[in-house]
Design a protein that fits this description.
The protein has helices spanning 3-11, 14-78, 90-102, 113-123. The chain is an all-alpha fold. The termini are far apart.
Length: 124
């Protein structure tokens, strides 16, 4: 094993490694006894967390996709020059405000239900 000589040098001698193993042996033995329980617990925790994590990930993807769609539509419908990056930054917010102002919508810079419906109505 390549790591054994490194350990010998790090601990100075073979006797030191033997002592270290004697100290660790009970810990390793105890861990082997509880390892199956630890694995079961970890799987249980992951199964509980996974749906929430997946939902958060799905929301992030949906939000980026919606923002990308808004950017693309504002570029096509209004002649904007937004970077299609899926980031709802200042440029996108200002473009949405211009769209809302031009089409008599509430001007807040957020593409909420009314703004999205208006844009979708023009595209469909």
């Amino acid at each position: 094993m390549d790591w054994l000589p490194v350990l010998w040098r790090a601990f100075g001698a073979r006797a030191e490694i033997a002592r270290l193993l004697q100290v660790l042996r009970p810990t390793i033995t105890e861990f082997r006894k509880v390892a199956p329980d630890v694995v079961v617990l970890a799987r249980s925790i992951m199964n509980q967390i996974k749906p929430e994590a997946q939902q958060a990930f799905d929301e992030e993807v949906k939000t980026k996709h919606d923002t990308y769609w808004i950017q693309k539509q504002l570029n096509a419908l209004e002649g904007e020059h937004l970077e299609l990056d899926g980031q709802y930054g200042e440029a996108t917010m200002e473009a949405v405000k211009r769209y809302q102002q031009k089409h008599g919508l509430v001007v807040d810079g957020w593409a909420g239900v009314n703004t999205m419906a208006h844009i979708y109505g023009r595209v469909a």
